[in-house]
Amino acid sequence: MRMNRAFILLLPLLVTGCLHTVKYKLTEADRWNGPKIDAVLLVQPITDKTTYTTNDWKPKTVEGETWRTNPRGGYSHTNLTKDVTAMVAKHLAYSGLFSKVVTDKTAVGDYVLSGKLTAFKTSAQVNSKAETIAGVSSAFGLIGAVVGSTATAQMKAEVKTWVTLDELRVNDKSGQIRWQESIHIAKDETMNFREADSFVLYKHPDAALKEAVTDLIRRLGTSSLTNRVAL
Known about the structure:
Number of strands: 7
Shape: elongated
Strand content: 25-35%
Largest sheet: 7 strands, mixed
């Protein structure tokens, strides 16, 4: 019996249990070194309003080039509201900009952050020649893999990524809007062809989300909210 192609492509994820969860690493460079805001920030759900496909695994050909994307079937949660909200709150808390960051809907914050996720996509060019060389070489064991790696070391692929945090707002306890903006990250990079791999490409929107939240922290840290500064 012929197996569905989408199932075949998803099989490695199902076998390993490695469905992707939105996340990225935070380092000391992600600490906010400017004035601190002496207030509790409640992060409400960053609602997923993106237009996406769930299991559209087949690469698309556009003007002679083949491209892969990041269908939601490869994520641990099809709707990314929970994962993105958790990462935004974690990054904000780690930065130290606010005295405390909470996500519990029953909690009371001095300020409330809300917003929408309206873009979270990567489109990665398939370098068929490089992938064919790598695939054939790997069939010859370690020596073949080394030869293949050497032969494809300089082979590239274009990777495009879009992430948008839209209608971001910070309200105070009275409901008054104290800050509002949208943040859009658009990247078009030439990278090693392996960055366009069906599973590797999922990390690119995560990296763009980190850039967006880093920018969010910078904007909040240089806004009028800093009038409420921790001593």
